[in-house]
Protein: Beta-ketoacyl-[acyl-carrier-protein] synthase family protein
Organism: Pseudomonas cavernicola
Amino acid sequence: MTAYLNALGLLCALGSGKQAVAERLYAGDASGLRRQDGWVPERSLPVGAITSALPELPGVSTSQATRNNRLLLAAALEIDTDIQQAIARYGRARVGVILGTSTSGIHEATQGVSGYLQDGEFPATYHYGQQELAAPAAFLADWLQLSGPAYVISTACTSSARALLSARRLLDSGICDAVLCGGVDSLCQLTLNGFGSLEALASERCNPFSRNRAGINIGEAAVLFLMTKERLCQTAVPIALLGAAANSDAHHISAPDPQGRGAQQVMRAALTDAGLAAEQINYLNLHGTATSHNDAMESLAVDAVFPAGVPCSSTKPLTGHTLGAAGALEAAFCWLSLSAENREQRLPPHLWDAEADPHLPALKLTTAQSRLTGDTPRRMMSNSFAFGGSNVSLVLGNLAENTP
């Protein structure tokens, strides 16, 4: 069954809203990745922070008062008209919420614990519920007064990609007629210090697939799709989730399988699910974290699945790695590239120093001049790989204008 992605709300280091994000995405504008102090002791690091004004939370309890929920609310407000139309059409019990996150409100929880250690008591702004992983879905369902299924998936950097796959399952099973799905993650000291302890943080802008790559940058984002069983938007070429697959190779708690076996399997499974051959994919958004192990594994896997090559890029030098939100954010970049508003047929450029690693297969990396070629319909894949060997691939495509 076709899973239509009718509406998209998003914000990240590139900007707030689809238009601002698209303009800076295709321009390869990495100015949103700014150096900041205070996240990791004695280090100044580039981070993909959101600097736009965020909406105030409407009369929520202390347990819901987090930056993470404010980011999510901003994404939801961008598509509020579409959400309200879906609620009116299907009823509040038939609309679900599935989100991916890895931080939830841990930033506020950390501040609360710091206050306790300093003053001997928790500040009034602290509540343990802020850090619960289910908090973003509960907040969104409460705000919209939805009574359909509402839950969070937390599988590290595949979390929000899995949320899209799971949303489609709710539609396929007949449990829901519409699902709000995506992901949200906010910057926090716990996350950055965790990656710092793994010696995975780059001191400069990340440099995916370069021989000089030196680690990741961390960012924050919120992404929300309205997925339905039927096409709701009649004015634009519809975009759908055509295929999806997930697996876990369980190779190591934090390192990927060096040969990328799980990555190869999940890409092939997503293609099979979409009923497509590799040569029918017009663009691939790479996971591309710029760590030594990830880029080596992914380049081997992509070369095996796409032996003829495929235009591809990592967008993490533009946004930072947004962790639990990354899968949905990079699927959103595919959505933007497939949309009718992308009149110049531009593709997200790969921002790097152009010094290829001679030990890795050469990939067909995009530039600012890269454009979609061939006739519609067009198909795009987005990869997400995570700790513990969790792998997800999504295939998005635009459909014929007369699709019912």
In short: The first helix runs from residue 18 to 26. The radius of gyration is 20 Å. The longest strand covers residues 3-12.
